[in-house]
Amino acid sequence: MAAEIHPRPQTRKPVLLSKIEGFQDVVNTAVIIPKEDGVISVSQDRTIRVWLKRDSGQYWPSVYHTMPVACSCMSFNPETRRISVGLENGTVSEFVLSEDYNQMTPARTYQGDIGFLTICVRFDVETRHAFVGDHSGQVTILKLEQDNCSLVTTFKGHTGNVTALCWDPVQRVLFSGSSDHSIIMWDIGGRKGTAFELQGHNDKVQGLCYASHTRQLISCGSDGGIVIWNMDVTRQETPEWLDSDSCQKCEQPFFWNFKQMWDSKKIGLRQHHCRKCGQAVCGKCSSKRSTIPLMGFEFEVRVCDSCHDSITDEERAPTATFHDSKHSIIHMQYEPTRGWLLTSGTDKIIKVRTAFELQGHK
C-alpha cells in the first residue's frame, strides 16, 4: 500500500528569487553560472540558451542557439566555460562561451552511433571512477583507465529505474534515486556494504544534490517536493523482510498455508511486514503506524504492535524538511557558494530559489 506523505510546516522556506519562462518545451537540464547572475539551459525544444540577469531584474537570453534535434542533457565547466550538450540522436556537441557570456563558439562534435539512453552517470575525478545507474535499478562502478575501463562492482537496491545519482567524494558516499520513489545511501568508503534507505517522495525522484558543508542531502521529485535531509545523524539500515508461513507474533496461518489452516480450522490471513523489525505479521498484529526517521521513513509506515510501543518520541523526531516547488520537477541543481537552488519542471519554467537551511539559517 502506498504511504501518504504529510509535509510538515516550516518557518524558513526556500524563497523564490526568479522565474525563467519562454520555452516551447520542457527544460531537461539547466545550471547556474558561478559568480554570475546567469543560467544556461538546454531544452526539448532544441535550444541552448544563456540567460543573463538585466538591470530590470529579469533574465534575458544573451545566447540563443538551435540544435538539429532535442537536447537531452548538458554539462558546464565554469573554469574553461565549455558546454557539452548531449542530443537525443546520441551526438555530443561542445561549445565554448566568451568571457562576457554573450557569444558561444562551436568546439567539437562527437557522433553517436546509438540512440538516446536514459541513464545517470557521476564521476570521481580524483580516483577516476564512474558510477552508472540504469533502467534495471542497478548501479555499476567502473574504473576509468587511459584507453578503456574495467568493472569494479555492481549493486542493486531499487525496484525501478535509477533516475538520479549524487557522489560525495569526501565521505565517499553515493546517493541513488529511483522511479520507485526511494533514495538509497550507499556507504562506499566504509567497505562494509552498508546501505540506508530514505523514503520522502510519492513519485519519481528526479534530482539529488549533497551540501557537504552542512551535511545535508537535497532531493526533488515529480511530485513537486523538495526534501532537505539531515545526514549528520546516525542512520539505521532497514531490515530484510523475513519469510514465514504464519504470523510471527500470533502464529495464525497465512492464506497459502493450507496445512495449518486445515489443522487449526482457521481461515488464512494476509501477510504484512513490520518496517522496523522485518517480521512477517498479520493485519491484527500490525494495526498501528509510525514514522521511523532514522530508518528513512519520514512518513508513517506499518509496524508491528510491539515495535510501535518501543519507538520513543525522540526516535520519531523528523530528520528532513519538506517544501513544495509548485511544479513537477524534471531537473535540479544546487549552487553552494550562494546557496541557490534551481529547478526546471514540466510546466516549462525554471525557478531559482535561496535555500536558507543549506546556508546554515535555521
UniProtKB/TrEMBL annotation:
Cellular component, GO, one term: early endosome
SMART domains according to UniProt: FYVE, WD40
Superkingdom per UniProt: Eukaryota
Record keywords: Endosome, Metal-binding, Repeat, WD repeat, Zinc, Zinc-finger
Keyword field contains Repeat: yes
Cell compartments where the protein resides: Early endosome
Gene Ontology process terms (BP): positive regulation of fat cell differentiation
Repeat (WD) residue spans along the chain: 20-51, 155-188, 198-232
GO molecular function ontology, one term from the record: zinc ion binding
Alphabetical list of Pfam families matching this protein: FYVE, WD40
FYVE-type domain segment(s): 241-312
Protein name, per record: WD repeat and FYVE domain-containing protein 2-like
